[in-house]
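Changelog note: in this version the structure field was regenerated for every chain. One regenerated record is shown below for reference.
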Amino acid sequence: MSYTHTVTLPLDWDQAVQRTREALAAQGFGILSEIDVRATFEAKLGSEAADELGDYVILGACNPSLASRALSAEPDMGALLPCNVVVRRGAGDAGTTVQAIDPQTMVQLSDSPAVRDVANDADTRLRAALAALQSG
């Protein structure tokens, strides 16, 4: 089972990160957190580890309306929020990969119909953001 939705874009790193932010915003997602994994590797593991990984950022995307609905239905869902979106590019890669968590993983952990509805809505929005990246 895949737990992400993935697209590879023929964009350089900076363009891919910026366009990913814009596509998420168009679907009502804000970025609550940003983890620069490459910088962390460099600081904690050294340049070689950072270079081996390549450019890699994790965006903590949140749609407040969806988060409110999920937490109202099941407060423990907060452990799965925000929705992580990864933008990564290894050394020598021809494109930049963007991956979003598949919100259907929440449904597998909860039998709440309200959580299922939120997951379906989030899934539609994240897939639309990724489709927008590919189209343009």
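Spot check on this record: The CA atoms of residues 20 and 133 lie 7 Å apart. The chain has six helices and five strands.
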